[in-house]
């Protein structure tokens, strides 16, 4: 699929994302999330895209984790999707905001029960003395919520990256790659252009 086939970056993302869903063996929705802490130290990790629309790209996490601390007030982040089987990648950059409690509740309710319990048991990114400690916490949460629904923990929720720039990268022979970039304008539209590979 030629990167010139769509003029709207969200429509082009939807097209590539659908093709990735059909071709990638594992976690077609995996994306690298890059953040920077208050000292300027960058950090990157893989997270899963759990929703997207014209407002942005959504993922969920423990809001007491390192990534959440990096995503404090006024922060920005970068995302990278890399689909090796399609020889494509998409880079997204922009400011980050929390999704609403209603959105976080709805997504949390859709998760498997063990994943819900894990969100309660884990003190994500904090030191752990032994795996057995985490397993004991998990079992304690299983007992605590036995026979009932597992509510969303108050420290767990979603974040949305609102794109200011989206780059579509398409592999070409001899490293003569195609790079198409969309940059948000002040009026809410998009400027687009090409970049040298």
Question: Could you characterize what this model shows?
Answer:
The protein is an alpha+beta fold and 197 residues long. It has a single domain, classed as Roll (Pnp Oxidase, Chain A), CATH 2.30.110. Helices cover 27% and strands 35% of the residues. It is built from 5 helices and 10 strands. It has helices at residues 9-23, 66-70, 101-110, 113-121, 131-144, and strands at residues 30-36, 42-48, 51-53, 56-62, 76-83, 88-98, 156-161, 165-170, 178-184, 190-195. Strands 1, 2, 3, 4, 5, 6, 7, 8, 9 and 10 form a 10-stranded antiparallel sheet that branches. Helix 4 packs across helix 5. The protein is elongated. The model has no long low-confidence stretch (mean pLDDT 93).
Which blocks of ≥5 consecutive residues have pLDDT under 50?
Answer: none
Structural category: alpha+beta
CATH homologous superfamily identity = Electron Transport, Fmn-binding Protein, Chain A
User: Which shape, going by the Cα principal axes?
Assistant: elongated
Residue share in β-strands? 25-35%
Number of E-type strands: 10
User: What proportion of the residues is helical, as a percent range?
Assistant: 25-40%
> What's the number of structural domains?
1
Tally of helical segments = 5
Distance between the termini: 18 Å
- Average pLDDT across residues? 93
Whole-angstrom Rg: 19 Å
CATH domain class name:
Mainly Beta
Largest sheet: 10 strands, antiparallel
Can you tell me the CATH architecture?
Roll
Say what the CATH topology is. Pnp Oxidase, Chain A
Order of helices and strands: HEEEEHEEHHHEEEE
